[in-house]
Amino acid sequence: MEPPRDHQQQQSHHHHHQEDPSKLSESPTICAKCGGPTCFPPPPDLSANPSYIPIRFPAVNLPNPPTNTKEAIIRTPVPQPQKVDIISPPYHFTAPSKIIHSQDDIVQFHSSPVFHNFLGFVVSLSESIKSRKLSDPYRVSSTIEVIISILQILSDYVDEIPPAPQSARYGNVAYRTWHERMSSDAEPLMLKFLPLDLHGATVELVPYFTDSFGNSSRIDYGTGHETNFAAWLYCLARLGIVTEEDYPALVARVFVKYMDLMRKLQHTYSLEPAGSHGVWGLDDYHFLPFIFGSSQLIDHKYMKPKSIHNEDILENFSSEYLYLSCIVFVKKAKKGLFSEHSPLLDDISGVPTWNKVNSGLLKMYKVEVLEKECILGLLNSKTVIYVTHQVEFLPVADLVW
């Protein structure tokens, strides 16, 4: 006959009290159930901050500020999508002016609503293309069609302005002719899709647009210029020219067309990488296609981050996924072992899922590009301009370069 269940539980519970009380420490711990002494050590004190950083430890509660960029990226919360705040009339557009002059101005900019709204816009673009191929059908509005045609016009300019004969590795001077033509035509190109009541917005839109294709003095291009193009798209969203329904086409049609143009410019005029991190960068020129491309591959049934080492996959699918096309470009542009010339991309290939790759790249973009490279680099050489807005409504801190 089985003993009563209560008796079994009592026996099970008291087995740890059978130790000789004389062998217990001078301050024995107390059993939470019966109040008797127990030989088990006391539980750890959970009130103090741990000396290590657990994976899920909230970044906002970290005891000390990060000491380096890598630590800052690890501690940064994953950026979240945000709806773009659309402005309403009456409009008061203002010519660009330099606002950020000091480190305090940078701190103020980073805490401003528009900084987080712009970053949220980039995240929204990334999510809009999640698990989708470039060849998938997308809604393409008349405005999107005009923007694509504008980029095609700029591409045609490259065909009409051949590179000048020179022996220098970087910086073909013919690029300056192309850039001058693009800049002079920028405003009439904007007017192709702006409604009549928004024609005055060109005073703010044109500087973003012309800064999206590189620097004509240095004949270089980098992630700061790429971010200017994203800021130009953000301005169009602020104006209501493009809506959330257009976001997938902004990535799969507009941004891809922009990428094609920039690759053409880089190849034709030998643009120097601006602010390149060398072997410890993703790409000498671009960052956003890695974000958008990793989002495309989230939950893919067969392709994992390590698939970038499979040449058959790269050959057959690089036209469908931005991330893979960037890997192909890097492998063609750089010689030697991939792990040696692109160690960061090689390390990322060891991440288990594309979702983790995407969230990590978003954090890296916030820290490496928006909080450091672009803003600090622009202090001495570029103009900080207003986001499209009503001047009397927006505080001075609400700026994007």
Give, in order, the helices and strands: HEEHHHHHHEHHEHHHHHHEE
* Overall form: globular
Largest sheet: 2 strands, antiparallel
Task: Let me know the number of strands.
Answer: 6
Subcellular location: Cytoplasm
Enzyme class: isomerase
Catalytic activity: [protein]-peptidylproline (omega=180) = [protein]-peptidylproline (omega=0)
Protein name: Serine/threonine-protein phosphatase 2A activator
What is the structure about, briefly put?
This protein is mainly alpha-helical and 401 residues long. The protein has helices at 5-14, 69-75, 103-110, 113-128, 142-160, 174-190, 202-210, 223-238, 247-269, 288-296, 311-317, 322-333, 338-341, 343-348, 354-381; strands at residues 29-30, 37-38, 220-221, 272-273, 385-386, 399-400.
Describe what you observe in this structure:
The protein is mostly helical and 401 residues long. The chain has one domain (108-400): Phosphotyrosyl phosphate activator, C-terminal lid domain (Four Helix Bundle (Hemerythrin (Met), subunit A), Up-down Bundle), CATH 1.20.120. It is 48% helix and 3% strand. The protein contains 15 helices and 6 strands. The strands form 3 sheets. The chain has a two-stranded antiparallel sheet. A two-stranded parallel ribbon has the order 3-4. The radius of gyration is 28 Å and the shape is globular. The protein starts with a helix and ends with a strand. Mean pLDDT is 80; it is low at 6-12, 21-25, 49-59 and 375-401.
